[in-house]
Amino acid sequence: MRVVMFGYQTWGHRTLQALIDSEHDVVLVVTHPKSEHAYEKIWSDSVADLAEANGIPVLIRNRPDDEELFQRLEDAAPDIIVANNWRTWIPPRLFDLPRHGTLNVHDSLLPKYAGFSPLIWALINGESEVGVTAHMMNDELDAGDIVRQESVPVGPKDTATDLFHKTVDLIAPVTIGALDLIASGKKDFTPQDRTQASFFHKRSLEDSRIDWTWPAADLERLVRAQSEPYPSAYAFHKGKRLEVLAAVVSEGKYGGTPGRIFYREGEGVVIVAGADARTGRNHGLALTRVRTEDGRELAASEYFTAMGGYLTSRP
Q1: Do 96 and 133 have their domain in common?
Q2: Where does the secretion signal sit in this chain (predicted)?
Q3: Are residues 115 and 64 in the same domain?
Q4: Rounded to whole angstroms, how far apart are CA atoms 148 and 134?
């Protein structure tokens, strides 16, 4: 089939490479300009560079809503559009233009985790598996019928980076498998159960701020979700920002006020956590490694020279 590809960052790059390696013919690529956004500088393999290296025409757009782009698409006469990690709305006159419509590839197990940063949100929320879904695009974001979907388990120590590497390897088989089904003439795919749908916003630095009223298990997953190369989870100690690079749920249960720097346990320093910490029934979060505002990385046991005081969510 003749394919136009809309995509960005490493997700789009992997999709384009899979298309180039397949029997399908990529006739045009549309991608976003480079971004200085903290999250968009991560996994930033260039779709434009890959297309140009393979002699494929490239258009750079923030939004696909201009007449020149529409005309270029009409001239390309695609059988299908394939999109992955396209960050702005694609209007119906574009996604309905090819005879087979538009296939969107999304890194979650739809209908859950539509929208942005699905792997990070899924890890924070304690999901047991993540994956990649190829679905037909309609006028509701990430809501069209599912053509193909594959999953991988989430391990107890997985970081968001681990989940990225697990799921990015699913892009090629999911995308090409879905295209093969469409090319074979199959038209009836699996409708999404919209009662199970959830939609998440882009993450920002504010979303990495630690709230000590969260249960320790949730905070431990937040730290793993915000591991390198993502901006680290952070709190404030004596008015200065302190990044939490590694932590575990404490073995013991600790009572008091959320955020209290309380007790040395093993190689960690336990911080009281949970909205009902006053009951003494909660595990704490044992910090094991931190980074100071001036960039020094230290074992938490070395940084906290004495117990007492608080880690706060704001200076």
Answers
A1: yes
A2: none
A3: yes
A4: 5
CA torsion 92→95→97→98, rounded to 10°? -160
Per-residue pLDDT, averaged over 204-221, amounts to 97
Cβ neighbours for 39, distance < 8 A, ≥ 6 positions apart: 117, 202, 203, 204, 230, 231
Per the CB < 8 A criterion, the answer to whether 29 and 16 are in contact is yes
Q: What is 58-70 written as a DSSP string?
A: EEE-SSS-SHHHH
DSSP 196-220: G--EEPPP-GGGGB--TTS-HHHHH
| Whether residues 262 and 157 fall in one domain | no
Residue 70 has pLDDT above 90, yes or no: yes
The angle subtended at Cα 199 by Cα 195 and Cα 202, nearest 5°, is 175
What sign does the dihedral 138-144-148-154 (CA atoms) show?
A: positive
Q: Give the predicted TM-score (pTM) of the model.
A: 0.94
The whole-number average pLDDT for the span 72-100 is: 96
Q: Is 150 helix (H, G, I), strand (E, B) or coil?
A: strand
Closest CA to 201 of 294, 298, 121, 315: 121
Neighbour tally for 2: CB within 10 Å: 15
Q: Give the largest Cα separation in the chain, rounded.
A: 70
CA–CA distance, 256 with 223 (Å, rounded to integer):
22
Q: Closest Cα partner for 85 from 149, 143, 10?
A: 10
Domain ends where: 177, 200, 223? 200
Domain containing 105: what range? 2-200
